[in-house]
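Journal club prep — side note

Before the paper discussion, L.F. wants everyone to see what a predicted structure for a comparable chain looks like in token form. Sequence:
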Amino acid sequence: MRLIKQNFERDGSGLVTLFPEEPEDMWYAYNLIRPRDLLRASALRRVVTESATGSTSSTRVHTTLTIRVESLDFDPQSSQLHVSGRIAEETKFTKVGQYHTLDLELQRNFTLIKDGEEAWDSVARGIIKEACDPVKSADVWAVVMQEGLANIAVLTGARTVLRQRVEVSIPRKRAARASDHDKVCTKLNLMLRGQHAEVAQGLEKFFQTTLDTLLRQIDLNESKPILLASPGFTASSFQKFIIDTATRTGNKALMAQKANLVVVHSSSGHLHSLNEILQTPEVTARLQNTQYTREGKLMDEFMTLLRKDDGRAWYGPNEVEKAVEKGAVGRGGGVLLISNALFRAQDVAIRRRWVRLVDQVRDVEGGEVRTLSSEHESGKRLEGLGGIAAILTFPLDDLDEEDEESEILNGNTNGTAV
């Protein structure tokens, strides 16, 4: 994302003009744009004109429209963002109050105007800073597979996206007889020894289809880790197939990726296995500088402390807010983990609640704040805990019991009043 223009007022209102350059930028735009914002972008509008004789004709015209945002529709697979609302500024072709849906496009500017008090809060400005950072974490590609099934996904600093699912039918294996070994003469016989020729051919077709699909997704000129994960030896066999294919075809760009191929074990070939894959030592060592791995480690540390039950790990909105109020999420190891889904609340008061909590931890207490993406496995784990958790600098006990006591007191008071 490229920042074209930025103008913030003292009261927190203002505007930015952004230039999205890659699909990942649409995810940042989705988290930045909120209902009641003003959005200005190029649009294609159908215009109906009436002639003097009463006949009508319809044409499509390119224009620039400004709408008051009412709803957003983001497709994570295609990274397409559609923003709907009422037109806020009259043009030659439109009137104020008419509905329109703007389709934000790559390589086209859009201007976002927030005119409410404190609208451009610290979280919104942080999203812009992260989106326009030229040194964002590198992408990581992953092929999570088992015989006949491969899920090709890309992991970025903000989310995990399933790019393609490959399914190829492979004949079932049968026990090989001693006389059959001489007949197994396919290109994969060294790594698939003991299997019938039709099984080896099925695997070769599966590997070729998976490799062709992967090559359509990645840029061989870039050097980024490619995780190959599976139960058993499917991933290591696929790695050998890639190297053999590069050698046979003389594909130097593909051969250059050899050092980027990381084979790891997974419990299945389904995408949910990514969480366990990213916790393995070999993957952690390769991805130690990526945002995803740092956040995954923090979630692991939180869960470890939670199991110890020593009062240094708390989750839930009320419990975490109380911990912050007591100064337990500050310098010396305090970490606030919060899901970015909480900042997409349409209620301004709810959003301000979380923004103030983030500002309190980061700017006043001096603690660390990690905003986890709801599209990453670590973010999904956090959402299962209510979207917010904290690692404390010192233990606190019975934060949840205070709520229970207040509920009991309220219940008794109501009962007495009745």
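L.F.'s comment for the group: The two ends are 60 Å apart (CA to CA). Keep this in mind when we get to the figures.
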